Amino acid sequence: MGQSQGSPRRGRTVRAAGTALAAAILLSGCSDSEDVPVLTWYINPDDGGQATLAQLCTDEAEGAYTIETSLLPADAPSQREQLARRLAANDSSLDIMSLDPPFIPELAEPGFLAPVPEDVAERTTEDTLEGALAGAMWNDELVTVPFWANTQLLWYRESVVEEAGLDMEEPVTWDQVIETALEQDKLLGVQGIRAESMTVWLNALVESQGESILANPEAPAADLQTNLDTEPGSRAAEIIGMIGSEGLAGPGVASMDENQSMLLFQRDQGSFMVNWPFVWAATNAAAEEGAVEAELVDDIGWAQYPRVDEDTASAPPLGGINLAVGADSENQELAFEAIECIVAPENQTEYFITNGNPPSSEAAYEDPALEDDFPMADAIREALENAAPRPQTPFYNEISTAIQQEFTPISGVNAEQTPTQTDAFIVEVLRGERLL
Q1: pLDDT tens, residue by residue, 235-271
Q2: pTM (global) more than 0.85
Q3: Could you tell me which of 310, 399, 15 has the C-alpha nearest to residue 6?
């Protein structure tokens, strides 16, 4: 998912920007402008930042091309469905696309994406953070260009960890997080809803043990081998099941998404939360509006994603957006030229400041202006170095949906049964023996 879901307000902002840009093009005259190629960029909802970059790069192109934005649906599954259908229909309007990392293999495998030229790949990834780069690949080849990346941190209440005697400068484990919540009668901010966030959570727990949900992600459906019925899979289920059975995420966990878990964390029983960086700006805004106590902001700290085993570094979730060019685009060379402008480090920095979406470029974090709005920028950059993508397979949608069904509600997750049942379910679905 990558925290790329947009609100209606965001959608109106981007749509208005796109409409204004289109109107400007139509009013720009009937002579030279008629010969300027128009590149259509299909964007996910944001706070208007992609439309702003489209105008910026249009201006910098000095007549070589014009970029128009076209807004995709708000939710990630609908974005995937629309793009897949258009690409399969040989739609030539797909010049540039904003893609969530999990969608990439499904669109790359059938040849729907134009190959990234070697020189473009070299220039746009020379300082890309490891996690973000991994999410842009398929079959060991760069098939998309990293734009912005996202990851989760462990957010905590300073007052809670002080009472627990935890040193947050040292790695923290899930066992410590759970133990602290139990001892202090506090609640944990996790995402227990039957949605993509469940796959995000499970994948991070498995990857944090040096394992992957799929043993051979590039294999055809009939040959895919799952890895949940293993010790790492059981341990992941144990953590999720413990939080569910002990009621550590509160009574509303079955409907708890990223926003709801943030609201829980902001209340008096808040203690720890795993979530994307948007929560920092959202909490500050709530404090300014008086929706939460102003002192809350001073009580919030952040650290790297919790470890499953104290001796093994965590592998935080990976989200974000990569840019791709449609294989049937008639403007591929210009589209990649435009992409180079869009993902320039300075543009990634500005996009972070204005829209809250972290850069995939390491150089983009060097701007001191980030410190004011995002004092945890260095922690985000470190997390993105270690972040792990979700299973990279053309059958991701089927696998994720199966996981969501089997691992919810979390109060019913059992370390001995749930991983085994999930493995069997996934295999049966992929072989056409069972429906989702």
Answers
A1: 999 999 999 999 999 999 999 999 999 999 999 999 9
A2: yes
A3: 15
